[in-house]
Amino acid sequence: MSRELPASGKTENHRATEAYHQKVEWLQGDLAALSQQPDRLEARQVAETAIIYSHQLADEYQLVRPAILHNLLIQVGLKDRGLCYHWTEDLLKRLQALELRTYQLHWGVAYRGSDLREHNSVVITARGQAFEKGMVLDPWRNSGDLFWALIDADQYPWKKLPPSDW
Length: 166
Description:
It contains 4 helices and 5 strands; from the N terminus they run ααααβββββ. Helix content is about 40%, strand content about 15%. The chain is an alpha+beta fold. It has one domain.
């Protein structure tokens, strides 16, 4: 037997769908702007994957909000995964599986070695572009709601982590 959602449920679902599509379009446009000759389809694929997978990771990690509280639960042994480097590792693997032609993926780290301040995130650049011209894709910061910003506009002093350290 099928039941229809009440009108308010349909409206909320519609708003969520609209918000998702708008966010994908914004990220797609920002990714395309990284390159002189963007591949808009590849930019869309990256945008959709990063946004959807960030939400999936929040579910997989059984995330407790805010992210900093979830970190504390990991530190005391009540949770297993969900530190920023877990998000980075998992999102990076998922994006690498796309076998991107026009973009390059990097591991960014800020305050490396600091117990309380170190932060890790995926950084994406146009292929061959300098790391410093890249964009941070950070699923941890907003607890699974993907945050992105150009490196030079972000609050963190990002440095490229060599692939040998991944």
